[in-house]
Amino acid sequence: MSNSLNTNIASQQANLYSNQNTLNQNKSLNALSSGSKLTQAANDSASLAISEKLLALVSGSGLAIQNSNEMIGLYQVADGGLSGIEDNTQRIRVLTLQASNDTLSSSDRQSIQKEIDGLSESSLDIANSTSFNGINLLDATGGSQGNGTFVAQTGADSGDTLSTSISDIRLSIPSVDVTTQAGLASALDDIDSGLSDIQSSRATIGASQNALSSNVKNTWVGQINAASAASQLRDVDFALESANFSRQNILAQTGSFAQSQANSRGSNLVGLLG
Length: 274
Description:
The chain is mainly alpha-helical. The protein contains six helices and four strands, in the order ααααββββαα. It has a domain at 46-233: CATH 1.20.1330.10. It has helices spanning 2-6, 9-34, 45-99, 106-129, 181-234, 238-273; strands spanning 131-132, 135-136, 149-153, 161-165. The protein is rod-shaped, with a radius of gyration of 39 Å.
């Protein structure tokens, strides 16, 4: 009889429900204070795993955008150098045509040759000095392989890359001698060949710039979508969670009252039997 009186089933049940309500109340409070409904894996392990992958994609996409923009900057510097060399080469072509006319004397051609030599030297200086972050761009020594091939990491995964090769533009700078008839005979062909190489390099760089710009836009859209999906999985609906917290709070108070009543009835019964 004594064991039966000391075992208050109603009180134990009330205590169990009260503890559960307290746990739910704490869980709701944590969600409201942190703004995340995935404060621990036990809350929703599947959603947590998916959201972590999405967040990795978001951060990787952000870095890919930065990489692409930096590579666009590199190509702009390279194109600026090539533009200067092309301008010099175009001027050399004009001077060569001028020197080809027999109305000019040998002295005139010597003067033209001096300007051509100065332009050629300027082009070589541009080719040797054009660089980005200390990396030479126009002498085919840049890039991770040291052969003028530049690789941009354009996405969040290992295979998301874009490669662009810039040849040694110094080889495309023509050596022109307008002081002799033999030099004049081959000068225009050499100049046109060099111009073709320079323009081809600029076209390659321009295409890569456009591809990177398009990639930045697409990656940015994907980053926003991934961030939105992760937010839906992780972020708390404050209105819903506030209502849930209020409900758990009421249940916890009710449970405490029920437990106190159960304990009171048990004590009264023991007193009566005593």
